[in-house]
Write a structure and sequence with these properties.
The protein has about 160 residues and is of the alpha/beta class. About 50% of the residues lie in helices and about 20% in strands. A five-stranded mixed sheet has the order 1-3-2-4-5, sandwiched between helices. A hairpin with a 5-residue loop joins strand 4 and strand 5. The longest helix is centred in the N-terminal third of the chain and has 18 residues. It is globular, with a radius of gyration of 18 Å. The chain starts with a helix and ends with a helix.
């Protein structure tokens, strides 16, 4: 009897986990823009130094890796990681793209999180309408999500 109960329990857990949507962090901006337009979502641009920035790691652990953030992100935004690692190898095209976006948004420190609304213009060009920005916020995921919601709901 215990064996049957265990098998049923594991089946239910595995099926629930199978339906849970894992977060997708895009690194190719063009692909992420296409997804955001198709899904009619805003974009979250996470400027980070993944292998050296302590505050970036703190934001990751306290907010971006939580189930509350995962649920919120899947409902509200397309995620883009714009990484500036020091030790981790990175494709040259991604490096160039990230530097261009860093310059465009005038990012001066990490972590920086920008919320944008992508828009395809009639001439085929793209516009990223800046909705606002944030970074690490003391208070954990609930406080950070409160700030993020205020930014994306106001625009």
């Amino acid at each position: 009897m215990k064996r049957i109960a265990l098998i049923l329990f594991l089946t239910v857990v595995m099926s629930v986990n199978g339906f849970a949507q894992k977060l997708i962090w895009h690194t190719d901006m063009e692909k992420a823009i296409d997804v955001a337009i198709i899904e009619n979502k805003k974009m979250l641009l996470f400027f980070t130094g993944s292998d050296w920035c302590g505050w970036c790691m703190k934001l990751q652990n306290e907010v971006l890796k939580t189930s509350g953030f995962e649920k919120w992100a899947n409902e509200n935004v397309v995620l883009v990681e714009l990484d500036f690692p020091r030790r981790t190898p990175q494709d040259e095209t991604i490096k160039v793209q990230n530097r261009q976006l860093q310059s465009l948004f005038q990012v001066r420190g990490y972590p920086s999180v920008y919320f944008v609304n992508p828009e395809k213009l009639t001439d085929g060009k793209m516009n990223l309408n800046n909705l606002g920005k944030t970074g690490y916020i003391k208070g954990g995921a609930s406080k950070w999500l409160e700030v993020a919601n205020n930014i994306i709901k106001a625009n």
